[in-house]
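Look at a sample.

——
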Amino acid sequence: MSLFSIVTSVNQKIINQKHQHVITSTQRHLPDVDFYIYNENSFLKENVKIDGALNFDLFKEIKDLEYFLSNSPFKECGKIGKKDRNEYLNNTDEYLSSNHYWNRNSIFWFRKICSIYHCSKICKSNILIWLDSDVSV
């Protein structure tokens, strides 16, 4: 058992982003560390499976998650703030500093918290480290 484990959550769109580094860099530099990857969009019929990682489907592991998200205030997140980022192209700081961006996307960060929670229950090491997709090890 290693001293620590690493967890992240992804969806198909993130995996294909040029800024996604966590998968290849973790596997390259930390091959002996337990690396947990959670698919956070299986309800969209995504089948994210990364060879060499411990793969989990967030919505299968937390049975009531889809129901909760569809019946909680999170279902309204997409309606918060301006939808068209082009309105902010000349002032990106305004877009990111307003609550619109953070509140609008909170449903996605909530899924990351659920991944950490579940992983903390099954992780064998004493230290669990969350790495977001744009982190390079």
Observations:
- The CA atoms of residues 14 and 84 lie 20 Å apart.
